[in-house]
Recover the amino acids of this structure.
């Protein structure tokens, strides 16, 4: 069983996918105390709360696979797109410091999996991505594969395009990103029944949510989409219906519940939500979709060991929703 270290784990979407595929996550880290609380409740006490920049490199255990869905705000259209000029952008270089430390100890990870927003590839006219590729290939010595994957192609009805970078220390490895699978569910299939009143919009808020915008910003409001818009960390603020997800329930419009957001990220219903709604929206908005992580994890296993024949039951259960 491959040992995994996970950085910027959040509530554990990337980790959960690898755990489902048979990997052993032995150490994880996040700076957000609420995300760590959720992670501990669902996966155990192997997650460490704190800034990764302040954690001693020797305290990070040796591992086969390094996961890092590093903060996307420096490269996101929702942020200021400052990239490496933003202090958070330098967290990529903290990842490289960890790997270099392991290389010096002759404990180089076999695989690195990085995740970020789609626009990472085009940030600063592609220069940011070029730097990342140079570091991974030439400074760390990995064979690198990258692709943009959409969560809707892996069993959940959410349009969520993310950049995935998979790196192998063994240059003889032939890796292929997982093929898309048919989407069998719509957003409506994931909705809860008997939703509490607090999730329904008042007439005043509804008017704002359904507006086309103000001043120089205009967009068509749409609700009841079959495939949800990308969940975002600021869902608690209830953006307009051209940016956020709203549904009609018994003739009234409401926001999604945290449990519905969890389902849209591939988390099963036994995944415990132990924080406030605001924190839950943030965690699921930031999460890596479990299904996508799972299929990537299987593809990595296949690249390292050859194809595994999944049973029909395993194929049916691979996507929780």
């Amino acid at each position: 069983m491959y040992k995994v270290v996970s950085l910027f784990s959040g509530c554990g979407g990337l980790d959960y996918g690898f755990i489902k595929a048979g990997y052993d996550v032995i150490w994880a880290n996040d700076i957000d105390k609420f995300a760590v609380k959720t992670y501990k409740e669902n996966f155990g006490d192997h997650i460490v709360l704190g800034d990764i920049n302040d954690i001693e490199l020797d305290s990070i255990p040796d591992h086969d696979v390094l996961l890092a869905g590093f903060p996307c705000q420096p490269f996101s259209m929702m942020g200021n797109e400052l990239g490496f000029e933003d202090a958070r952008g330098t967290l990529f270089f903290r990842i490289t410091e960890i790997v270099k430390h392991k290389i010096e100890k002759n404990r180089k990870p076999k695989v690195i999996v990085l995740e970020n927003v789609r626009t990472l590839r085009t940030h600063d006219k592609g220069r940011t991505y070029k730097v990342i590729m140079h570091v991974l290939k030439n400074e760390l010595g990995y064979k690198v594969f990258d692709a943009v994957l959409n969560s809707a192609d892996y069993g959940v009805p959410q349009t969520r395009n993310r950049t995935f970078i998979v790196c192998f220390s063994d240059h003889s490895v032939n890796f292929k990103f997982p093929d898309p699978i048919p989407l069998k569910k719509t957003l409506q299939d994931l909705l809860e029944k008997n939703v509490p009143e607090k999730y329904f919009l008042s007439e005043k808020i509804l008017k704002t949510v359904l507006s086309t915008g103000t001043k120089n910003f205009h967009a068509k409001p749409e609700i009841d989409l079959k495939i949800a818009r990308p969940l975002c960390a600021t869902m608690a603020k209830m953006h307009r219906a051209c940016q956020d997800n709203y549904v009609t329930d018994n003739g009234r419009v409401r926001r999604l519940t945290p449990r519905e957001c969890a389902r849209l990220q591939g988390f099963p219903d036994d995944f415990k939500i132990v924080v406030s709604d605001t924190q839950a929206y943030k965690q699921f908005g930031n999460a890596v979709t479990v299904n996508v992580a799972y299929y990537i994890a299987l593809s990595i296993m296949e690249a390292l060991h050859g194809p595994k024949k999944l049973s029909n039951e395993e194929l049916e259960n691979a996507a929780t929703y």
